Amino acid sequence: MKKSPKTSVDRRRFLKGAAAGTVATLVAGSKAVAAPRAAAPQNATAPLLPAEVDPRGVVDVLTVDHPGSDFMVDVIKSLGFEYIAANPGSSFRSLQESFVNYGGNKSPEWLTCTHEESSIAMSHGYAEVEGKPMLNLAHSTVGLQHGSMAIYNAYAGRVPVFIILGNTIDENERRAGVEWYHSAQDAAAMVRDYTKWDDTPISLQHFADSAMRAYRIATTLPMMPVVLVADSALQEAPVPTERRPQIPKMTMDAAPQGDSGSVAEAARLLVNAENPVIIAGRVARSDEGVARLAAFAEALQAPVIDEGGNLPSKHPLLSGRGVLRNADVILGLELSDFWGTLNTVRDQQIREVSTVLRPNAKVISIRTGETFIHANYQDFQHYMAADIEMPADPDATLPALTEAVKKLTTDDRKRAFQDRGAKLADAGQKAWDRQRAEAVYAWDASPISTTRLSAELWGAVKNEDWALIGGGGNFLWNYTKYYQRMHGGSAAGVGFASPAAVGAALAHRKYGRVPIHVQNDGDLMYAPGVLWTAAHHKIPMLSLMHNNRAYHQEVMHVQRMCDRHQRGIANASIGTTLLEPNIDYAKLAASMGWYSEGPITDPKDLGPALKRAVARVKAGEPALIDAVTQPR
Amino acid sequence: MKTLPAARRSLHQARVQSAVRVPFRITFRSAAGLLLAASCALFLAGGYATARAQRAASGNAQNGKSLYTDKMCAQCHGASAEGSTIGPKIGPNPPAYADFVNQIRNPIDKMPAFGPDSVSDAQVADIYAFLQSLGGSAAEASPAVVLAPGNADNGKKIFVAYGCFECHGRMAQGAAATGPRLGPHPIAITAVLQELRHPANEMPPYTEKTVSNAEVADIYAFLQSLPDPPKPDSIPLLSK
To answer: From residue A246, how far is each of A72, A201, A236, A249, A626 by CA, in Å?
Structure first.
């Protein structure tokens, strides 16, 4: 039956619910106020009521026992959210009250955030560790506008984020002035280009149904953000006593597996190849997934270019991109940019393309990324034609593919595979030795080299139960567990790293790990208030500032243009550096409740400072060490 | 012969003991030729003067042609040594033989090292002979440029002022994401000049309007002056 949005939420329906006994106090007013009206057109039908009667009347309702937002909280609790990240906003005031009182501020627990870009990026980081979304609340137009870049990052990074957006659809429910600025006809439209789904429920049952659907859509591959608009009137009106809304059953989708024919053909190509190469994007979602990828690579003894941080860092089949040059079969697993992995667009005046793909090489792709794309934003990357394309989850497909490879592997092929594996292991060790030999250059330099920075951090945490939640480890770092790395992506929108790290650290907290983060200075300055959120909610983490006092990527871009235009680079720092005054990040962090030290310029001072900071983190505090570094 | 401006030359002559003749071709080819691209940070550059003194290798060019493919040189440097986004152009007119051998055995960048066990000395000579056999045109040979030995102190300053450090680090140590190590023990100055004026990879071009030859010499002197680093085994954090 078709419903009118207006009739489901308007005041007359509210009065009907109140008359049924839900509302404790109801005093019906009788004073009629003549509202100014435009002259009726001559052919208009006669009004149903006399012109001097305001059909809305005046009703003085002061309290409600069981608002719709209580039911919304019941729905949200059924989805298993641990936390809500939000900056407060009046468009969801009823929901906020229901969460902290009716819901007891537990499961989910409210996190006070100072910016929607921070709160949504925190959810992004949390989801990368926990594999499921945190709840976000955003305040109508302005809150969503603040959070939109973080939503885009999550969309491009294929990370689930669940956003409830306050809004007031019925103009008669808005107070004059600000509430009109903070209302929209189609509130989620602004981010529809970079969310997977949204809805604007007009009843509580609709809200419950759509919440289930939204969660399922957000967490089905490719995972992405969703938005559910929670109308303020629906939040604040009482739950109807007749036809009470019900919480639907939740069923999650199984991950899609590659079809048997494509799997068999892929296995045939891989087994017969002399130089197969596996390029792994976001494949594993657990330690079990890591084991599945390792088992597959080992069955072929094929090199793995690991772009997704899947395999343990000392796995003998890990390889650099050099192996692509000789590859006759290339298997791409959930690559966000397969074409860009094989091709290079040179950043000179004329953008020439070159490829490492041999003319007769076969390309196989298994990915879910192509199964959902929008038109406008170009996050889907360059078109890539594969010889076999499986729109499937690699993690779910690998067991069948591994089995198919093993069945086709003869003894002769097995011996060839073993020879190949031995050579790869040897090459890998030599590559590691070369990196170690290179690490000594500028070891004692000031500003501190990034290699020294990473080595000192590794030295400070290697004996802890650590997890890197952003920034760079290098060849020294020994990743053995899935959770020790972040596994999402982003649209490279700056300002994301610091809140994402706080969200990730929160996810690690209950496991007692030591979360560590290499923080870029320019990124932190977008919304440093997230430091306060971490301190306020006692989220332990170590943030090591990679303080090169610049937006260094942009320095290089402007410098490139200076060179290309042959005008000298003297002015390349205008607008790209963070100097005069130097920002004191230790003081900034201390002002928001963090343990902090710095700025540190002598590399010899860095290790001891990091050890002191790790001790604080293990005691439950956030700690920041400000290291003045070389650009890269 | 292309020479430095008189004033600049005087300045250099005042601060150096002796001048060194460094033959160098500065030939700006077509845009298409310019942009034979190389994306990795490989810093071995080729394509400069045939007029320069270089030791003739006594290799077998025909054998070198096969080795060039078999040893996968072509995968990075192109089928005709013309360069790609991975590796620079190395022929015709390859770099000096000593530099060529040094780069193969002890690459200063991301190029994998090829030891004698994988490419013998004789095979290196054969490959070099192949590169020589490709034959540079007469137009590619150009007059030499006289570069005086530079001033390391000034080179250190302009290494920063001209933004070299942004990609290569303040001690020219290199960075994985942006640019290779340049020193100590830099590659031949001819190769440095070639890469500056006519980069084979992602490096932005530094023309003489931006960095004069004399300043390049100063930067080169700075790179030469860099001290050797400590041994990895002497650093506990780098223990295996």
So the answer is: 11, 14, 18, 9, 52
Nearest Cα residue to A233 out of A22, A26, A1, A13 = A13
Residues within 8 A of B (CB atoms), A 444-463 only: 445, 447, 449-451, 455-456, 458-459
For A544-566, b/e burial (b = at least 16 CB within 10 A) is bbbbbbbbbbebbebbbebbeee
Q: Which secondary structure element, helix H or strand E, spans residue A320, and what is its range?
A: none
Q: Which of A304, A360, A370, A367 is nearest to A329 (CA)?
A: A360
The span from the CA of B206 to the CA of A560, in Å, is: 9
Q: What is the H or E stretch that residue A603 is in? A: helix A603-618
Inform me whether the pLDDT recorded for A419 exceeds 70. Answer: yes
- In tens, the pLDDT along A43-95 reads 545 555 555 555 556 678 899 999 999 999 999 999 999 999 999 999 999 99
CB A282 within 8 Å of CB A334 = yes
Q: Tokens 């197969």 sit at which residue?
A: A276
Mean of pLDDT values over B8-32: 34
Q: Which two three-digit tokens encode residue A30? A: 């009788």
CA distance A292 to chain B (A): 28
Alpha helices in A440-538 (DSSP H): 450-461, 497-509, 521-524, 530-536
- Alpha-carbon gap, residue A447 to B170, rounded angstroms: 8
pLDDT, tens only, A454-491: 999 999 999 999 999 998 789 999 999 999 999 888 99
The neighbour count for residue A361, using CB atoms within 10 Å, is: 20
ipTM > 0.85 (yes/no): no
| B85, closest residue in chain A (CA to CA) | A354
Please report, to the nearest 10 degrees, the dihedral formed by the alpha carbons of residues A186, A191, A194, A198 taken in order.
-40
Q: Cβ separation of B171 and A441 shorter than 8 Å?
A: yes
The answer to which of A43-57, A101-115, A230-244, A472-486 has the lowest mean pLDDT is A43-57
CA dist A239 and A249 (Å) reads 20
**Distance, CA of B113 to CA of A433 (rounded, Å):** 11
pLDDT mean over A417-433:
96
Q: Which of B36, B172, B237 sits opposite A456 (nearest CB)?
A: B237
Q: Which two tokens stand for residue A195?
A: 């969310």
Chain A residues close to B230, C-beta within 8 Å: 440, 443
Structure-block tokens of residue A489:
């992506």
Q: What is the pLDDT of residues A501-540, one digit of tens each?
A: 999 999 999 999 999 999 999 999 999 999 999 999 999 9
Write the CB contacts of A72 (distance below 8 Å, at least 6 apart in sequence).
Answer: A95, A98, A164, A204, A207, A211, A230, A235
On the 0-12 / 13-18 / 19+ scale of CB atoms within 10 A, B227 is exposed
| Residue type for position A454 | S
| Phi and psi, residue A217, nearest 5° | -65, -45
Distance from CA of A461 to the nearest CA of B (A): 12
Residue B11: the pLDDT is 35
A-B C-beta contacts closer than 8 Å: 148
| Range with lowest mean pLDDT among A245-259, A545-559, B77-91 | B77-91
Mean pLDDT of A392-398: 98
- What's the alpha-carbon Rg for chain B, to the nearest Å? 18
Is B226 in a helix, a strand, or coil?
coil
Q: Please give the residue of chain A at the shortest CA–CA distance from B204.
A: A560
